[in-house]
Design goal:
single chain; 201 residues; mainly alpha; 8 helices; extended
Length: 201
């Protein structure tokens, strides 16, 4: 009787193992599919931002000569009361129309990056993929407009102040910068180890 039950027990054990293994494989496949879809969505979002803001970004770079806006320029961009004809005349903007045009272009570029950053926070986009395809651009635009963003967030006039302005973008840029720094430190450590090994032999 015991001998007759043994094959049945073995069969049941095998069936359970196969079922569990199948569930495991299905779960792994689902994770891989989701990860691949996330990377594809990230690539699409970045390409859309890169293509649709190209002219605006070039115009901004030319206006500021590739530099950060000065404090006076930041004030003029954020504070209507400062936009007197005298202030505009001695600024890089020259007149109100030029200032409004540049301000609109800055908002288009930064708002696009903010939307991508919110997508990262929501788990829609993959920050590591962004780091690899556009990390240097993300860091550069954050550094270039950091003074503008911070002044907007802490503006003395509470009617102008936007405390949450571009917060997600700033956080994403900081995360990418931290990841880049870690990679650089690892590469330096590897080179130092190789050099130490070479000297030893």
């Amino acid at each position: 009787m015991a001998n007759e039950q043994r094959p049945a027990v073995l069969f049941q054990g095998t069936a359970v193992f196969v079922a569990v293994f199948s569930i495991f494989i299905t779960a792994i496949s689902s994770i891989i599919t989701i990860s691949r879809a996330k990377r594809l969505q990230t690539l699409t979002a970045w390409s859309n931002w890169f293509d649709t803001t190209k002219d605006d970004r070039l115009r901004i770079i030319r206006h500021f000569s590739g530099q950060q806006p000065t404090f006076m320029e930041v004030e003029l961009l954020t504070t209507p009361a400062k936009r007197t004809p005298e202030n505009l005349a001695v600024s890089s903007f020259g007149d109100k129309n030029e200032l409004e045009d540049i301000k609109r272009k800055i908002m288009v570029v930064l708002s696009g990056l903010e939307r991508i950053a919110v997508g990262v926070e929501e788990g829609i986009y993959d920050v590591d993929t962004l780091r690899r395809i556009g990390g240097s651009s993300i860091i550069r635009y954050h550094d270039r407009f950091d003074d503008y963003i911070q002044y907007l967030q802490t503006h003395p006039d509470k009617n102008i102040r936007q405390e949450r302005a571009y917060k997600s973008f700033a956080q994403m840029a900081a995360e990418i910068k931290e990841q880049n720094d870690k990679i650089i430190r690892k590469e330096r450590a590897k080179r130092a180890d190789r050099e130490a090994l070479r000297r030893r032999y």
